[in-house]
Queue: 2 jobs
Job 1
Amino acid sequence: MSEKPRIAIQEIRQGNFRALARAISYVENGISDLHELLTEGAGSGDVAWAGLIGITGPPGAGKSTLVDALIGEFVRAGEKLAVLCVDPSSSFHYGALLGDRIRMSDWYNHPNVFIRSLSSRGSLGGLHPRVPEIADLLKLAGFDRVIVETVGVGQSEIEIAALADITVVVLVPEGGDEIQTMKAGILEIADIFVVNKCDRPGADLFARNLQHSREHGLHQVDPPAVIKTNALEKQGVAELAQKIIELGRIKQDPARKIPLLAERAWYMIRNERIKDLDKRELALRIGKEVDAGTFNLYRFVSGFGRGTS
Ligand SMILES: Nc1nc2c(ncn2[C@@H]2O[C@H](COP(=O)(O)OP(=O)(O)OP(=O)(O)O)[C@@H](O)[C@H]2O)c(=O)[nH]1
Ligand SMILES: [Mg+2]
């Protein structure tokens, strides 16, 4: 059996982006995992890091433009930033297109900024199952914050909201109907609502309505902030960065962190348990039993659970 490729953590820590990109590919494609590295100590067990930021919202809301502007704020504050862009609907070609779009970022060649797109392969319409691990690798590599941009379709926004330390939902003034149809869970989980494209009519009213609905919503202890931005002109972006920094400090509190760590554990355990489940394989086995006239769904499932089928 060939050995798994080694993750060159020393080089990565020294800021070798090429080694980092390679390591992410290994993790993304399941060639290597970080378990050895991360179970050794400092790493995933580190409670006092609240730098995983999820940015989600409908297609075209201005998430990438906003992320670009946000990077500027954090870099000016002396931080190292990593950005992962996840496109749940990406076929191979669309994924490539997304990659090109990210490459147009102003920050692509900045030494303190690392930008990477991720496919959502194997994730049943949600996030790439290795996102928490990749975020931990980036943390280990010394990034102060990891921003994950997901388009708010499929399961990805629910998943990132559950996994991220801070969830930012980006909406636009025309998004009144979106609030009505927004997936259950997002309204409750969002830490910050951004009304982007506030140069467009209706932004003030929309922001006021959001403010109102959050005050009367099912909110946890802290109702989310509502911030208006014009990402193109970088208006409101400093305020957004400030809010993220402030919330990051609050969220380092271990008591607040435990439910989040439970979410991450659940996500990783679930993915580990289902990783060998393949629907085509199931169909083949079921087909054989149906042909033989012996098929019973419950017997099949319980037999499978015991690993005997
Ligand atoms: N008028 C206006 N246009 C904006 C603003 N922010 C972004 N845009 C434009 O909106 C379009 C979509 O912006 P993106 O940043 O690609 O949006 P996105 O949410 O990342 O899009 P997807 O990743 O495809 O879902 C682009 O043409 C931007 O130039 C804004 O504040 N005002
Ligand atoms: Mg985008």
Job 2
Amino acid sequence: MDELTTPGGGRAMTSEEMVRLCKDHTMYTWAATGAVDPIPVDRAEGVYLYTPEGERILDFNSQLMCVNIGHGHPKVLAAIERQMKKFAYVYPGTATEIRARVSKRLAELVPGDINTFFFTLGGAEANENAIRTARLYTGRQKILARYRSYHGGTNACMQLTGDPRRLANEPGMPGIIHVMDPRPYDYSFGTSDAEMADNHLRYLEETITYEGPETIAAMFVETVIGTNGIQPPPQGYLPRLKELLDRHGILLVCDEVMCGWGRTGKLFAFEHYDIVPDIVTMAKGLTSAYAPLGAMGVSDTIADHFKSNVFWGGLTYNSHALSLAVAEAVIDVLHDEKLVENAARMESVMLGEMERLKKKHPSLKEGRAIGLFGMLDIRKNAAGELICPYNGGHPAMAELAKSLRDNGMFTFVRWSHIMCNPPLCINEAQIKEGFEIIDSALDITDRVFEG
Ligand SMILES: Cc1ncc(COP(=O)(O)O)c(C=O)c1O
């Protein structure tokens, strides 16, 4: 062991050392290690990250759209300490006060008849258990999911996922049927919400007929699509979808891993759309990523089924006390600091900034946001064609991403899109600071705009 690897012993690492050792000894997600250029992070507070050398970076994506309350909140630290002093872990077959308190709180907060929860370590495990629950409950095997979706990196969730991350993981678990999304990927056609919902539901019902409704257990939807476009559903679509699925005895699972916990300006995104799903899955914002935790919430009818039927699932870290203590503190912070209300209020600030940039930059096709769930789309010509093909890149977008990073912003640039998903504690001045950085980066894509 040299001084750098002696716990608590050596001097603090430089950025260069951190990056080198992390790349030498760890694998990075969705990447070839040789190609990654990780940001060295020493500490984080509020909406900012800091490198070991003190460079301040604005977190415009809440990391993976998960640090909803912002970084470094002292109330969460205190809650971890309090729980740690009692115990950190007991096995899932026990009853604990923190499990009792958090599950009761969730039953109060999650709308409708969703009052029973199964705790996991993250979103993928919550979805895995939703697949299991739907199959055990209905006695059916097949699952419907949409193409423009991401549902997690585990084996079954990779098959649920519609986006290109699935492709290298195929073939996997059989029985997943992908269906089109209501909104086309290239949305330049000007189709109305009602037409999109009509077309989609007609096609979906035909698919259900061909597949055999008696074989289909559930349909998964991201209530508001996350990484694949930050796309709210067309108006009127979700209640009609729920009615269609109900008619065929198919459960609706709303994956709220990314869009839940205040991100859209309501605690759960489905609250915007006048539905309650049969199953909801959540993670990320539930603990604001201060500790790993996911949950699957089920309706009373499904919960009743498992009172007399075995739930054939388990996890060593199910209902982990430290993660639950974090969740409780995070829910308190969201409530006390009115962060969901702040997300709703900041939506118009973000939309205002997007509109300002749209007037100035011909390459900006559209900006949209629901709460603090936002995205910018970059186009290559006046006809509105996106600058990158689906699942493709463009040198100008790579340059734009570098410019954001060089000017002190962390966010994701994916294909033709720039993510705008800051922590829910962000204020107006900090949103404007972010859009100033984006403003100058858009000069790069303007230069290749074909007119
Ligand atoms: C909508 C959605 N579902 C599921 C997941 C998987 O969650 P996790 O990475 O915590 O397993 C994600 C992660 O980004 C997500 O965005």
